[in-house]
Amino acid sequence: MTEADLQGSDGHGVIRLPQYLKRLRAGGINKQPNIRVICERAATAVVDGDNGMGHLVVSRAVDIAISKARETGVAWVSTRYSNHAGPASLYARRPLQHDMLGLYFAVGNANHLPPWGGMEMLLSTNPIAAGIPAGEEPPVVLDMATTVTAYGKVKAKAKRGEQMPVGWMIDRQGQPLLDPNRAGEGFLLPIGGHKGYGLALIVGLLAGTLGGAAMGRDVVDFNADHVSVTNTGQAILVIDLAAFGDPGHFKDHVDRLVRDIRSSERLPGVERIWLPGEQSLQKRQRYSEVGIPISAALMDELNMLARELGIDPLMAEVSA
Length: 320
Fold this sequence. Notes:
Number of helices: 9
Number of domains: 2
Radius of gyration: 20 Å
């Protein structure tokens, strides 16, 4: 959660702690899971998370994929009976330390997206992330939902008392929905219209169905249900650069492309062309120096939880 907040992914950071605690205390998450591989081949595996914290399950899956990729060049590991695991980019980035690239896919933990032209929410935000190594330049790190925004950002807007921009959600009459506290009255919009719907479907089939995890009507809304097993699915694909040639040569080419893009001609009024992951990196550097901002409402909620659990609060009350 700290890693999420540190890179500015506040919809997946400590804001999620109250929800995780509700599920832990209600028995919806197994506090002592037996996370294990239930089937594998040289370049593949399926990890059963035994309903443990998603962060633990996916971290194990990434470690296995990295180990396999060293031997096979490419490795795919799926999870089943996992849970919400935070921002996708955290896991796509981990192979970078080993001169490997990572591609991550997940089924969201609640359905917020209907099929294109429909009204029944059978799909989720189903995110994709990619971590591509570079040499002297920062790695290229993409982290995106297949919806216009991740639902965690809707929750963050509500926590801060802010309105949503037009284009994030619509109500059941097809009108823009701006109040995040009324999010249950509508649904998220896919990126690129029908193309985003198709992408969400494919990601769900790869991250969920392929590994034996929930998809479609089987997805449990963990925002409303703190008891039921979610059987969340994720998948990590790791590619060892050395399997395709000299890693240094690859990274030199990435550097050159990054610099070409950054220095390319800009539209009037555009100050800078950003590469995926650069803004998150800047936030990580800044927050590492000055600290991570936390809203007054969230701080009060965390302090209240601390009192309930009999532990010291983070700091004095900060309610406005």
